[in-house]
């Protein structure tokens, strides 16, 4: 797994709300730098408090989608700082929402496990 430790700051923008529809809302930031697509473990600072997160960067690489663990607040328009850690996996296309939700749950479990070690 790649270990990046790359920091990205940005204002949270509205996305397509696909994550929210699946039960995993995301804080989205527009990317100005080229980062390899995939799912990453991350730390996120929101209003001075650090949280663990799962980050998805799509194949186009123009949006960073962050699911902040143990967090349920409206932060549209607020600035957050995301520090990318280990790359968990590459982007995978799924046949249905059920498969995607199962994989997201596995990703989050792995991120939680790594955060506690």
UniProtKB/TrEMBL annotation:
Domain Riboflavin kinase: 3-114
Keyword Nucleotide-binding: yes
SUPFAM superfamilies referenced in this protein's UniProt entry, alphabetically: Riboflavin kinase-like
One example of a Gene Ontology biological process annotation: riboflavin biosynthetic process
SMART domains listed in its UniProt record: Flavokinase
GO MF term (any one): ATP binding
Catalytic activity field: riboflavin + ATP = FMN + ADP + H(+)
Pfam families recorded: Flavokinase
Entry EC no(s): 2.7.1.26
Keyword terms, alphabetized: ATP-binding, Flavoprotein, FMN, Nucleotide-binding, Transferase
Protein's UniProt name: riboflavin kinase
Originating species: Candidatus Taylorbacteria bacterium RIFCSPLOWO2_12_FULL_43_20
């Amino acid at each position: 797994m790649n270990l990046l430790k790359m920091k990205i700051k940005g204002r949270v923008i509205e996305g397509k709300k696909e994550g929210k529809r699946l039960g995993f809302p995301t804080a989205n930031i527009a990317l100005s730098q080229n980062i390899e697509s995939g799912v990453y473990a991350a730390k996120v600072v929101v209003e001075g408090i650090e949280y663990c997160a799962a980050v998805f960067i799509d194949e186009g690489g123009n949006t960073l989608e962050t699911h902040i663990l143990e967090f349920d607040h409206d932060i549209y328009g607020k600035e957050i700082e995301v520090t990318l850690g280990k790359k968990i996996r590459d982007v995978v296309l799924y046949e249905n929402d059920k498969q995607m939700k199962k994989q997201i749950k596995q990703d989050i479990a792995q991120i939680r496990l790594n955060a506690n070690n």
